[in-house]
Amino acid sequence: MKKILLALAGTIALVPPIALTEEAYNKTYLFVETATKADLKDGKLVLYGVDDEISVFSDRPYRSAGVITRDHFFDVWSQGENSFDVDPPNAALSGEIEGKSHVLIIEISSPKVDGEKVTYSYNTIHGDDIQALDDVIMFIDSFSWRPPYTGPDGDLP
């Protein structure tokens, strides 16, 4: 009887990781990047005063969140068959011009980091011809973490 109980306890202990792995296959994450200023010219978006970290949150119904390093974000950017390199993400670029809020929907690609400056190539999807924004928040389209990617906490999400 003792052996049966130990075997049952061992089997039950395996259930949460299996459920988490199945859940991880359904999770998608969105990314939030902030900057003090953005310049948009000739298909190049330059963000100034960016942080070393990017906020990450999952789409419903999972509602998890975390922070990843910019290096980790750009590693994930280029990995896998459905990577952002293969299928560039949309982004909502929100900021202010002379105290008035503006939002521009763009497709971003080819990120490059230089200290506190990040440059993307971009195509406008929707919005006015904006050349500069202050107090910028950029919401980047979703990405599904799948093995061998790691999630916000370094493990599968």
Account of the 3D structure:
There is one protein chain. By secondary structure, this protein is α+β, with helices and mostly antiparallel strands. It has two helices and eight strands; from the N terminus they run H-E-E-E-E-H-E-E-E-E. A six-stranded antiparallel barrel has the order 1-2-7-6-5-8. Strand 6 and strand 7 form a beta hairpin. The longest helix has 23 residues. It is globular, with a radius of gyration of 20 Å. The protein starts with a helix and ends in a 14-residue tail after the last strand. 19% of the residues are buried. The N terminus is likely disordered.
Write the layout of secondary structure elements.
Elements: H1 2-24, E1 29-41, E2 44-48, E3 53-58, E4 65-69, H2 70-77, E5 90-97, E6 100-114, E7 117-126, E8 132-143
Distance between the ends: 37 Å
Q: How many H/I helical runs?
A: 2
> What characterizes the major β-sheet?
6 strands, antiparallel, barrel
What is the H-and-E element order?
A: HEEEEHEEEE
Stretches where pLDDT is under 50 for at least 5 consecutive residues are: 1-21
Q: Helicity, in percent?
A: 10-25%
Overall mean pLDDT: 80
Radius of gyration: 20 Å
Strands across the major sheet, in which order?
1-2-7-6-5-8
